[in-house]
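Our consortium's second objective concerns turning raw sequence data into structural hypotheses that experimental partners can test. To show how far this objective has progressed, the report includes one record in full. It was chosen at random from the queue rather than selected for favorable results. The single chain below, 392 residues long, was entered without modification.
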Amino acid sequence: MKKKDLGINTICTHIGELEDHKYKGAISPLYMSTSYAFEDVEHKRYPRYFNTPNQEALSIKIAALEHAEAAMIFGSGMAAVSTGVLAFLSSGDHIVLQNMLYGGTYNLVTTQFEKMGISYSFTDGLQAKDFEDKIQKNTKVIYIETPSNPLLTITDLKAISDLASKYDLISIIDNTFASPVNQNPIDFGIDVVIHSATKYMGGHSDICAGAIATSKELMEPIFKLAINLGGSLSDYTVWLLERSIKTMGIRVKAQNENAGHLANYLEKHELVKKVYYPGLKTHKDHELAKKQMRGFGGMMSFELDENIDAREFRKALKFIKSSMSLAGIESTVLAPAQTSHGLLSPEERKKQGIADGLIRFSLGIEDKEDLIADIEQALKEVSKNQLAINTP
């Protein structure tokens, strides 16, 4: 049976496994060596060359999940972003990026690219025309992120792919928020897919990693840069990441279901001003999301009523954690203005539509009734305290 004919959970569980020939164990053995023979061997292996047994095996699994020919794993999501983008850019080149991006990516571009002689333009919107308007004679790359962090905007994958083909550009996407369970950009013609594998691939808030999936041809320049930048991952973490991906399909499905339920609940709540979730029919990109996503994801953002202190609300939650990351099995909230987009200036955040009181909500796998109860008690507590403060 071909990989493309297998279901997502089967790919997560079995593709890219290493077989334990000696003891017949049920899981991949872990090869911790950092030194391998160089004489009379088919492949010369070295961790920084991304080709240890565990690194190679996991790359096969990630490639299969993203319908790609090849994949590589990195020490962090930003290691994957920086390597994946810079592999196709040189001094004198230009890149077009969408105007809503993860703060770390935005900071990389705005603080480092000019030093390298690379120019860049951010779009004014997310339509294909917004990207085309920014293309210059020296443009080499179009970079997108959909759904975006933290406002869950949706960019048209097919339109961007067609535009990149028209101008002979490399199209790159950060697919972290969707995960391969919900979206496969390569199926729409996108060239390079990047993940913070810390998130849904890791899924347990205990792994830091990144991943790139693409064609064998485009992986060549990525690999050549990667071995010089040195962003490889330890084999123990690689082994843990493979373990985690085995359950990604069922975890993400549960997170999708929780997010859809909580988004509808929050949208109807009198103390919630705005909910950003592509699964809502009221979301401006809902129809587009339906066309290119199998599920709407476990991420959302929302703004509370002006009379509710967002910080006090987060502190009042009992088991929904205030946490820096996302996509774990536990539900978490954070303030993008203080964390993921804290490196942006207040003016830059305002331009992206990120309010200081915006709350990003990563849904875990808890029972939805318990999540709602936690939110209700927190809102009740903060409302009571606010009333006491305002009462003469």
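The partners drew two points from this record. The chain has a mean pLDDT of 94. The longest strand covers residues 139-145. Both points have been shared with the crystallography group to help prioritize constructs.
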